[in-house]
Design brief:
The complex is a heterodimer of chains A (488) and B (393). With 488 residues, chain A is of the alpha/beta class. Chain A has 3 domains: 2-100 and 237-280, 3-Layer(aba) Sandwich (D-Maltodextrin-Binding Protein, domain 2), CATH 3.40.190; 101-235 and 300-312, D-Maltodextrin-Binding Protein, domain 2 (3-Layer(aba) Sandwich); 317-484, Rossmann fold (3-Layer(aba) Sandwich), CATH 3.40.50. Helix content of chain A is 41%, strand content 19%. Chain A has 20 helices and 18 strands. In chain A, the strands form 3 sheets. In chain A, strands 5, 6, 7, 8, 9, 10 and 12 form a 7-stranded mixed beta sheet that branches. In chain A, strand 14 (359-365) and strand 15 form a beta hairpin. Chain A is elongated. Chain B has 3 domains: 2-48, no CATH class; 59-137 and 315-360, D-Maltodextrin-Binding Protein, domain 2 (3-Layer(aba) Sandwich); 140-306 and 372-390, D-Maltodextrin-Binding Protein, domain 2 (3-Layer(aba) Sandwich), CATH 3.40.190. In chain B, the strands form 2 sheets. In chain B, strands 5, 6, 7, 8, 9, 10 and 12 form a 7-stranded mixed beta sheet that branches. Chain B has a 5-stranded mixed beta sheet with strand order 2-1-3-11-4, with helices on both faces. In chain B, helix 11 packs across helix 12 and helix 12 packs across helix 19. The relative contact order of chain B is 0.16. The chains are: A alpha/beta (488), B alpha+beta (393). Chains A and B meet through helix 1, helix 4 and strand 4 of A and helix 3 of B. Chain B: It comes from Saccharothrix coeruleofusca. Chain B: This is Extracellular solute-binding protein. Chain B: Keywords: Membrane, Transmembrane, Transmembrane helix. Chain B: The chain crosses the membrane at residues 27-47.
């Protein structure tokens, strides 16, 4: 009996020693900042697998740049996504996605009603109206910030395709950014900043996991309701990337554990969605996320987007001058359409609405300039004033297109000019005279053509300024205005 | 009480030597039970092959594969292989990137389709290196989607309305929708999706499924003709490029995205292999008794079989190829993972899969088993088209 027991014990020990207990290992990991809350998970990982992950946190986009230029000597990288690495043309290393988190908008309960549905378009609309102030991460440094920017710009372009550089040139970020209360270097820093400023700020844009943990932290006086911007979802899948192939064995152990049931459950406890489809999830990680956008596939798009962001964030919104034909032939449906378009831009126009701080000039003309009115939008009263200008009923005979446009150009101050007319020029200067007097550089001119207006002449002038003609007859006037508003 | 007994029988207490630890009753019983349990467990694990490691020599075989890695990461397959003394260590990569990178350090590669396999075989032949081919199973390329998307595309159900898991898809109409740049909302407002109509693929530069889809779209766009020379192939590539690239940055693994709980938002129409879809249905049926009737497959009318080739690069890889092709347990498991296995005589047939699905109570797709990849242009032309469409490095 004694001998048998001893043999058994020895056999079991031998079995357990050689089969289990792999050699301990220590891996250095270049990691996104929002992974800093995974300490307890990594401790469990170390106990179970013998592999210790030593995370060095760096802003995701800076980490991506480091990886693209050869890396900084880490064994692994664990970033929110490898999209930005791929766009830099780097050959992605062996990688396995470990968990998922969509980019979302956390909105105070009291304000959530105003962005019902939580689309980027609604957020932009409310932000432009001064009714929503939000914080976000810096899109130059943080992936969550750039994800948000791609989401907003893709939704604004509304092509249903991946964003192209030409979709960004019509700068529709301005209204959205009117509501930006702060931008922080990382998604976690943005969360901290939100805690500090929560009485003055209504919303925070960031990863679902960061917002859930912020709600759990007890630091918020009013919890954030999570909205999934269904017109542009970006999902991050946190690939674990092997940078040093000689660490493959330890890497495999880490991946197996993270993708295994225990790893996935612990990650779920920290607000991450599992990548293993069969695991039951808590309700808060089962919310439908809506449709993922088609992500741009060229670095050039991101560069254009960031340049547009910088202009818009610096408040460099070009003034827009509307030169409107108030001759008698516009009476009826045409002038009604014009007023309706302006009413929409004054409120509820999504990405295209007039934003706080924006300067708009209206020049009404017939045989001469009838009225000039300039507002810088500070509130509803200014938009009401614009509406009153449009409501004027003093339509008279005569059409001095080029004189009025000339006046518009003198008021443009580097902005764009939108001309709407339905007639042929029969008063004031000629198109040739107008073109001769054109300042250099000219204000881009976009012409919206109704009915009888001469398409050839309008086209010639618009092209000379770098603009173009949009035919109001083929689409709705509002669509035409939306298409060209803010372009420069 | 104890004290008085000691006095009555002093010899017992004084003279008896201390009982060895292992023979003390209070110790022996629990130890015996736990040791027996552990031994039984060890024996069970040994028999199943899980901890054979310390007891017998294990052959570690390394391979580089794409979608077929799902076969080797399956627990049952791993156990069956371990019982044979084999452990497979895999590295994932796209089929075409397997073919265009160094593979000398592996025992085998398993690209998902013939174009990549041919590239590899040619390369091995040029360098007079070991290469033995095994073709254990095959699976068609399908467009995996959701029922309301299938309806919006006016695909034709193979069986009972609203119930069948399989639809026939007229490719010309899909190509028209894509060309017109229509959004899903324009096709059917109920889909509540402002994205353009298209089928999402993995990276054309690296994945066999994406390259096959490229070939299919080219075939349809070219009036069911295969381009015969480089000039017409490149012109065709330029024509179809916008149809394939408006999805933007491709995802890494379309089946993972499609089969995720968020799949309908991530990849409502995804180009994947039939086996990936069937594995999902089979697993669900075996675990819950249910069938997922929201997820359905679209079969293009042009037959799109793909035959993955296990190319052994060493004798160890060859041994694995033999096993996968001939071992009854592994063949059965391949069926359970949704693969169509070749008949013993090497002929294409879906008979075995059909029988298996019927026995489980899962509908059977009715696709003719026709020529394999006949709509694809010759390999050099396909390569040129892939590079042109994907701007491949």
């Amino acid at each position: 009996m004694k001998r048998l027991a001893a043999v058994l014990l020895a056999a079991l020990l031998a079995a357990s020693c050689s089969a289990e207990a792999p050699p301990p290992a220590r891996l250095t990991v270049l990691a996104s900042p929002e992974l800093a809350d995974l300490g307890p998970v990594l401790e469990r990982l170390r106990r179970d697998t013998g592999v210790e992950l030593v995370l060095e946190h760096r802003n995701t986009l800076e980490a991506t740049a480091a990886l693209a230029s050869g890396g900084a000597g880490h064994d692994l990288a664990w970033l929110s996504s490898d999209r930005y690495l791929k766009l830099r043309g780097a050959r992605p290393p062996l990688s396995t996605s470990t968990m998922a988190s969509p980019l979302v908008i956390g909105v105070k309960k009291g304000v959530a009603d105003r962005v019902r549905g939580g689309t980027w378009a609604e957020v932009a609309d409310r932000a432009a109206a001064g009714e929503l102030r939000f914080g976000m991460a810096d899109p130059h440094r943080a992936a969550s910030g750039l994800d948000a920017l791609v989401g907003v710009a893709t939704a604004a372009a509304a092509t249903g395709s991946a964003l192209r550089p030409q979709d960004v040139t019509c700068d529709k970020l301005g209204g959205f950014l009117t509501g930006r209360a702060f931008s922080a270097p990382t998604s976690t820093a943005a969360a901290d900043e939100y805690v500090r400023t929560q009485d003055d700020v209504d919303a925070l844009i960031g990863y679902e996991s960061v917002l859930l943990s912020l709600n759990d932290s007890g630091k918020l006086r009013e919890p954030l309701e999570i909205a999934y911007p269904r017109d542009g979802i970006v999902l991050s899948d946190y690939p674990l990337m092997l940078l040093k192939p000689e660490r493959r064995d330890a890497y495999d152990r880490v991946v197996d554990w993270l993708r295994g049931e225990r790893g996935q459950r612990l990650l779920m406890e920290r607000g991450r969605r599992p990548v293993e489809p069969d695991l039951p999830r808590p309700p808060r990680l089962s919310e439908p996320i809506g449709n993922a956008l088609y992500f741009p596939d060229r670095q050039e798009v991101l560069d254009t987007l960031l340049a547009a962001y910088d202009r818009a964030a610096a408040g460099e919104r070009g003034r827009v001058v509307f030169v409107l034909d108030y001759s008698t032939s516009m009476a009826g449906a045409r002038i009604a359409g014009l007023r309706e378009a302006f009413a929409t831009l004054g409120g509820g126009g999504g990405f295209d609405r007039f934003a706080l701080g924006e300067t708009i000039t209206v020049v009404r003309f017939a045989g001469r300039v009838l009225q000039e009115h300039t507002v810088t939008v500070r509130g509803q009263a200014d938009l009401d004033a614009l509406r009153d200008v449009l409501a004027a009923d003093d339509l008279v005979d005569g059409t001095a297109i080029w004189s009025a446009l000339d006046r518009g150009h003198r008021l443009a101050e580097g902005g764009a000019v939108v001309l709407m007319t339905d007639g042929e020029n029969n008063a004031g200067i000629s198109a040739e005279e107008f073109l001769r007097a054109l300042p250099d550089p000219p204000a881009r001119t976009y012409a919206i053509r109704f009915g009888e207006a001469d398409p050839v002449e309008l086209d010639r002038v618009a092209k000379a300024t770098g603009g173009r003609v949009v035919d109001a007859a083929t689409g709705s006037l509002l669509e035409a205005v939306k298409e060209i508003r803010g372009c420069r | 009480m104890a004290a008085s007994r000691t006095f009555e029988e002093p010899a017992l207490t004084v003279l008896a030597p201390p009982r060895p630890v292992l023979r003390r009753k209070r110790y022996l019983l629990p130890f015996g039970i736990s040791a027996a349990v552990a031994l039984a467990g060890a024996v069970a694990l040994f028999v199943s092959g899980t901890v054979a490691l310390p007891f017998k020599q294990v052959l570690v075989i390394t391979g580089k594969l794409a979608s077929k890695s799902e076969f080797f990461t399956d627990d049952v397959v791993r156990r069956l292989l371990m019982a044979q003394g084999v452990q497979v260590h895999i590295t994932r990569a796209g089929s075409r990137s397997i073919a265009t990178n160094d593979i000398d350090s592996y025992d085998f590669v398993f690209p998902s389709g013939q174009p990549a396999a041919l590239l590899i075989r040619n390369q091995r032949q040029r360098e007079s290196k070991y290469a033995k081919v095994h073709k254990p199973f095959f699976s068609p390329i399908v467009l995996a989607t959701y029922r309301d998307y299938a309806e919006a595309l006016q695909a034709v159900e193979q069986g009972e309305p609203d119930k069948s898991l399989y639809y026939n898809l007229p490719m010309t109409s899909l190509v028209e929708h894509i060309k017109e740049g229509q959004t899903w909302n324009e096709l059917s407002h109920g889909l509540n999706n402002g994205n353009r109509v298209l089928a999402q693929t993995s990276d054309i530069c690296s994945a066999n499924s994406a390259a096959t889809y490229l070939g299919l779209i080219a075939f349809v766009e070219n009036g069911n003709q295969i381009p015969q020379d480089e000039e017409s192939a490149l012109a065709l590539a330029d024509r179809i490029k916008p149809l394939l690239t408006s999805q933007g940055l491709p995802g890494d693994d379309m089946s993972k995205q499609y089969l995720a709980p968020e799949g309908k938002g991530l990849a409502p129409v995804a180009v994947i292999y039939e086996h990936q879809y069937l594995a999902h249905q089979i697993r669900l049926k075996q675990q819950t008794g249910e069938i997922d009737r929201n997820r359905v497959l679209l079969y293009p009318e042009a037959q799109v079989q793909t035959v993955p080739e296990l190319i052994a690069l060493t004798p160890a890889g060859d041994r694995l190829g033999e096993m996968i092709t001939n071992h009854p347990g592994l063949r059965k498991r391949a069926l359970e993972l949704g693969f169509r296995v070749f008949e013993p005589d090497g002929s294409l047939s879906q008979g075995q899969l059909t029988g298996f699905l019927k026995a489980l109570g899962i509908d059977v797709p009715s696709t003719g088993v026709g020529d394999t990849e006949t709509f694809l242009p010759s390999l050099p032309l396909l390569e040129k088209m892939i590079e042109r469409v994907g701007d491949c490095p």
